[in-house]
Amino acid sequence: MIVFADSPNDPNFIRQMELLPPLYAQFAARDVVLITDTDPANPSPLRHKLRPRGFSLVMMDKDWKSPIRRPSPRAAREVLNTIDKMPIARTEALERNPAGR
């Protein structure tokens, strides 16, 4: 998951970062990596690849494909639901719990 903004003082960035800490344990259980990028003056390779405009919450599979973009902050439940609906997350959940088929 990547959170982009044009500044660390962007209100949307601040709000999103306030919403995420309760999810850190659940992120760890799902192997989610959180990346923030708030410096468009020195564009990172991810910023070059994804080309965000202003605030953007981007969620991607482990294969770095199929980005899901959100232009505004998202609540914890929505973030987890989006992650859990990704094909690779479903496959991993079934591998951990084969009885769930």
Automatic annotation (TrEMBL):
DUF4174 domain residues: 1-92
Signal keyword on record: yes
Keywords attached to this entry: Signal
Pfam family, any one: DUF4174
Keyword Signal attached: yes
The protein, known as: DUF4174 domain-containing protein
Annotated organism of origin: Pseudogemmobacter faecipullorum
